[in-house]
Amino acid sequence: MQSLLTLGFVPLLVTVFSLVTRPRVSRVVVALLCWVQLIVAVSLCWPIVIGIQSQISWTEDFSVDRLSASFLLLTTFIGACALSHAKCFFEMEETVSPTYNATHEQIFFACASFFLLAMSMVFVCENLGILWVCIEATTLATAALVYFSRTKHALEATWKYLMICSVGIAFALLGTILIFASSQHGGMPTGSLNFTELTNHATSLQYSLLRLGYIFCVVGFGTKAGVFPLHSWLPDAHSEAPAPASAMLSGALLNCALFPIWRLTQLVVEAHHGQLATIIPLALGCITVLAASLILIHQHGIKRLWAYSSIENVGIMLIAIGLGSGSLFFLQAFNHSVCKAALFLLSGNVIQATGKKSLADIKGILNLSPVWGIALGLAAFGVTGSPPFGSFVSELLILIDSANKGYWSIVIALTVALLVSFVAVNIHLAGILFGTSPKETVGPGPFATSCIPILLIVCAIASGITSLPLFVVHMK
Amino acid sequence: MILNLFEMVVFGASFTAILIAGATHLRVNLALYSVQTLFIGFATAMTAHAHADDMGIYGIACAITILKGLIVPVCLVMAIDKIRIQSDAASIIPAPLAMHLTIVFLGLSYLLVRGLPVPLEFSRGWPGATAAISLVFSGLVLMLTRRIAISQIVGFLIIENGIYLFALTQTHGMPMIVEMGVLLDVLVGVMISGLLVFKIQHSFEHIDVTRLTQLKD
Predict the structure, then answer these.
(1) What are phi and psi for residue A36, nearest 5 degrees?
(2) What are φ and ψ of residue A57, in 5° steps?
(3) A-chain residues within 8 Å CB-CB of B214?
(4) Chain A interface includes B159 (CB < 8 A)
(5) A153 contacts on B by Cβ (under 8 Å)
(6) 74-93 in B: which are within 8 Å (CB) of A?
(7) Is A463 part of a structural domain of the chain?
(8) A60 lies in a domain?
(9) Given phi > 0 = left and psi -120 to 50 = alpha, else beta, which region is A438?
(10) Cross-strand pairs, A301
(11) Domain boundaries, chain B
(12) Which of A87, A135, A476, B105 could bond A27 through an S-S bridge, CB–CB 3.0 to 4.6 Å?
C-alpha cells in the first residue's frame, strides 16, 4: 500500500508547487519532477519489467499485471515528455501570444499533474467503480487544460468536451451498475466490481445484465476515446488545447479510455460470451477507422488533422481489442502515443513560429527549420503505419489475425482505411513541408524545442525494430 | 397495480422530470429538480430503513438531500440571477411536445425494463427500474431540446439522478467508496460547468449553446 502511495506523491507535490511558485521556476522543477515520477513508476513495476513476476497486487482493489504496467509506464513517459516540452512551449508562448497569463500557466501545471495522477490510477486499480471515478476525474482535470488560452474557441471546445464526455461517462456509470447487479444475481450475493472476483465468477454472472452493462460501458468509455459517431468533441478539444495538453490528451488519455473496454472485453470472454465481446469492438472499430480516414481527406487545421488521425488509431486499437490480443493493442497504442505526442508538440512549435493554424497558411517548414520538418515527416509516417515504425508491425499483424479468424470484411475495410489515411495525411503534410515560408514568421525556436519530439521518434523506431521478433513468432 | 409508498416516491421523481421537460422557466425547473432530488433522498432513506437502519445509507441520503437537493439548485439559481436570464427557449422541439415525448419514454422504459431480472430484495423490479430509466430519457430529452447552457446542466443532473435511482433499486448497495466518488465527481463537474456558463456569458454575451458553432471541419 505504501509503495502505491508513492505513485501519488510526486503529482500532488507538483500540483502544490506549481500553484505557489512563479511559472519560470515551476516550469523547470515540474519538468524534472515528471521524470522522477517515471523513475518511481518504473521502480514500482520493476518485478514485472524484468519478468520475475507477472502481477503485483498492493491491496484487493489495486494491482498491476504486465499489460497495465506497460500502459502505466507509457502514460507516465508521455506525461513526462509533454510536461518537459511545456517548458519550451510556455517560454515561447510568453513572447508570441497576446493572451498569455502567468496565473493560467500555474493552473495548467496544477491540473496537468492531477490529470497525470488520475490517468496513472486508471491502470493500477482493479475495481471497475474506482476506475470509473478516475476516468471522470481525468475529464474534470482536462477541462482546465483545454480552456488554457481563454479564447472563444477554447471556451466552445471546453463546453462541448465537458458536456459530451460527462454524458458519455454517465452511461458508463449505468453500465458499471448493471455489471454490479449482474454479479449479485451470479455467485456473489453482496456483489462486486473487482475484476479478479468478477473473472473468477465470470460464468455465473447474469447474462442479460452483463450484456447490457458491457454495451453501455463500451459506448460510455468509447465516447471518451472518440469512437465514431461520438467523437465530435475530440477534434475541437485537441485542436484548441495548448500543444503539451494535446499531446497528453491524444497520447495518454485515449489509452486510458480504451483500457476499461479491454478489461471488460476480457471479462465477457471469460463469461463464455466471446461472440458479443468480439462483434461489438470489431464493428465499432471498423466504423471508426473508415469514418475517420474519410474525414481526414478534407481537413484544414493542422491539429485537427492529427486529432482525426487519433480517432483512426482508436479504431485500430478497438479492432485489436476485439481480436483479443493484448500485445497488439499495446503495440499499436505505444506507437500511436509516442508518434502522436511528437506530432502535437512539433505542430505547437510550428503554430508558434508561423502564427497560423490552418494547413493552407503554413508553408515551407523544411525551409524554416529542417529539423522540425524531418521530425514531422517521420512522426507522420509513424502514425500512418509505415515501416520501420512499430505501427507497421502491429497493423500488419492485426490484418493477418483478422484474416486468420475469417473476418474478411474487417480486412477489406481496414486496408482501405489505412491506405486512404496514409495518402490523406501525407499529402496534407507535404503541403506544409514544402514551398517557401512566408516572411512574417517569428522564426524557428531553439534546438531545445526539437529534443523531446526527436526522443519520441527514436522510441517509435526502436519499438518497430524490437517488435520484429513478434512478427516472426506470429508467422510460425 | 397498487403501488407502495417507496414506488410512489420513485414515480414522483420521474413525474417531476416530465414537468421539467414541459416548463421553460428556469427557476421553476430548478425548484422541480430540487423536489425530484428530495424524493430520491427520501427513497434512499427508506432503503436505509429497510436495511435495518444502515447508517451508511442514511449518510448517503443526507449527502444527496443537502448537496444535490439544496446546494446545487441554490448555486444555479444564484447563477441565473447574476446572468439575468429567466427562461429558456426550446430549440428543436417545442417544450409541450418535449413533455409529451418524455411521457412516451416513460411508457417505453416500462417495456424496456421488463426483460431485466427482478432485484433480490424487491418482490417486483419494474417500478424502480422504469422510473430510473425514464429519468435518464427525460434528462437526455432536456439536453437535446433546450438552448440555454443551464438547462443542459439540469439535464445532466437528471440523467445522473436516474442512474443513481437505478443503482438504488436494482442493486443491493453499491460500494461506499464508489458512491462517494460519484457524488464528488458530479459536484465538481457541476461547479466547473457552472463556471463555464459565466465565461460563455462573458465572452459571447449569450448562453445559447446551439449558437456555439464556430469550430467545425
Answers:
(1) -60, -40
(2) -120, 130
(3) 152-153, 156
(4) yes
(5) 214-215
(6) none
(7) yes
(8) no
(9) beta
(10) A358
(11) 5-211
(12) A87
In a mutational test of the B interface, the residue from A161, A163, A308 whose CB has the highest number of chain B CBs within 10 Å is A163
CB contact under 8 A, A166 and B178: no
At which residue does the C-alpha cell 474506482 appear? A130
What CA–CA distance (Å, rounded) separates B111 from B113? 6
Structure confidence by residue, pLDDT tens digits, A280-314: 999 999 999 999 999 999 888 899 999 999 999 99
Distance, in Å, from the CA atom of A11 to the CA atom of A75, rounded to the nearest integer, reads 13
Cis bond upstream, residue A281 (ω within 30): no
How many CB pairs (< 8 A) connect A and B? 125
Q: What domain range is A417 assigned to?
A: 280-476
Distance CA B32, CA B13 (A): 9
What is the per-residue pLDDT across A212-269, written as a single tens digit (0 to 9) for each? Answer: 999 999 999 999 999 988 999 999 999 999 999 999 999 999 999 999 999 999 999 9
Contact A137 B156 (CB under 8 A): no
B166 touches chain A (CB under 8 A): yes
**Using an 8 Å Cβ cutoff, are A466 and A331 in contact?**
no
Helix (H) or strand (E) holding A58: strand A55-59
Cα distance between residue B170 and residue B172, in whole Å? 7
Which residues neighbour A402 within 8 Å (Cβ) at sequence distance 6 or greater?
Answer: A319, A323, A408, A410, A411, A414
Burial code (b: 16+ CB inside 10 Å, e: under 16) for B175-195 equals beebbebbbbbbbbbbebbbe
Number of domains in chain A: 1
Whether A328 maps to a domain, the answer reads yes
CA distance A202 to A214: 13
Bridge partners (DSSP) of residue A476 are: none
| A374 lies in some domain | yes
| ipTM of the modeled complex | 0.93
Walk along chain B (217 residues) in steps of 10 and give the mean pLDDT of each run.
Answer: 84 92 90 94 89 85 90 89 82 86 93 81 79 93 88 91 89 78 84 86 82 78
Instruction: Name the one residue in this structure whose C-alpha cell is 474519410.
Output: A294
